[in-house]
Write a structure and sequence with these properties.
Helices cover 29% and strands 19% of the residues. It is elongated, with a radius of gyration of 35 Å. 20% of the residues are buried.
């Protein structure tokens, strides 16, 4: 920051050099000669290193009280002695910005009367500066390390395992669950991908529970359909078609997110989800195992049948 000479309607014109890119209307504190003034970033914002002018009010000089009894009379021929200062007179201006990431940027500039300019810029955490000393000692607050969330390192590109290698997965009961209780691991992979029961974005916290209930209804309708109950037969096929739709949407979402190429239906005339629909329709258990093993390698994270995501609570999440 540079202090310009001259005054404008009793104000001091100060050029502020932005230490970082700031948006329009950002309010920051500028310390000038021991006084702190609020300054607003002008319209359009400023970039790092760009300067903009602000007006700071000129402090009114405080005059000592008059005492007529102790007034001294100065003669006309009195000469005021000149005192030469060995140290140049300096003016210091400090800019303090509190960042959103928990750090504080302090830019300080000192201008001496001989023209020398000294600039300093320091960035430090608010906790180290003592501003958050009280909150840091609070037992009800979690530290940054405690709030840190680990995310799984899901590979980009081809599938981790081919579709027909589901028998080689080392998950505890994964293949048995996919074949005998198909909708339950299906709900687990949807909830792991943070998708709703229909395979789309939305509320996903109860996706596994919803598909577990649909699996119970599916088995019950299958038993009733053997007894030639029309309503049960209709419900059986309706749930089955809905499961194909939801898993197709989830697999398509997963392929787009991790850039997994399609193995069939590569023609431009085909719908991008044809490959997912064909795989789900002809081998739903293999598709479920392939998706489960792609997000988390079973050599490191074992499959848990009774978990909502098929993983331990300490396993990394899907970003």
């Amino acid at each position: 920051m540079t202090l310009k000479e001259g005054y404008d309607r009793g104000d001091i014109t100060v050029c502020v050099e932005a230490p970082m890119t700031l948006a329009e209307g950002y309010l920051m504190d500028v310390e000038h000669n021991g006084q702190v003034f609020p300054v607003t970033v002008p319209g359009g914002g400023v970039n790092q290193g760009q300067t903009f002018q602000v007006q700071l009010p000129l402090p009114e000089p405080s005059a000592p009280p008059h005492d007529e009894e102790n007034l001294a009379v100065i003669s006309d021929n009195f000469v005021i002695p000149q005192v030469l200062s060995e140290t140049p007179i300096s003016t210091t201006t400090k800019l303090v910005i509190r960042n959103a990431d928990g750090t504080q940027s302090v830019a300080e500039e000192t201008v001496y009367s001989d023209g020398t300019v000294v600039k300093t810029s320091v960035t430090k955490s608010l906790a180290d500066s003592g501003l958050f000393q009280a909150s840091r000692k609070s037992p009800n607050r979690q530290s940054a390390a405690e709030r840190q969330v680990l995310y799984a390192d899901v590979p980009m590109g081809p599938w981790r395992y081919p579709l027909c290698q589901c028998c080689k997965s080392r998950g505890q009961g994964m293949l048995c669950m996919a074949c005998c209780c198909t909708f339950i691991p299906m709900g687990q992979i949807l909830q792991r991908l943070k998708l709703n029961p229909s395979g789309g974005r939305g509320t996903y916290e109860n996706t596994c529970i919803a598909w577990t209930g649909l699996w119970i209804s599916f088995v019950f309708c299958f038993i009733m359909a053997i007894a030639s109950t029309p309503f049960a037969l209709f419900t059986f096929f309706a749930v089955f078609i809905y499961a194909i739709y939801a898993l197709t949407m989830a697999r398509y979402h997963m392929r787009m997110k991790y850039r997994i190429p399609s193995r069939c239906c590569k023609s431009k005339a085909c719908n991008p989800g044809c490959d997912d629909c064909c795989c789900v329709f002809w081998c739903m258990p293999c598709v479920i195992c392939q998706m489960l093993t792609h997000t988390h390698d079973q050599t490191e994270y074992n499959y848990k049948c009774l978990s909502h995501t098929g993983l331990d609570k300490d396993a990394p999440q899907i970003e």
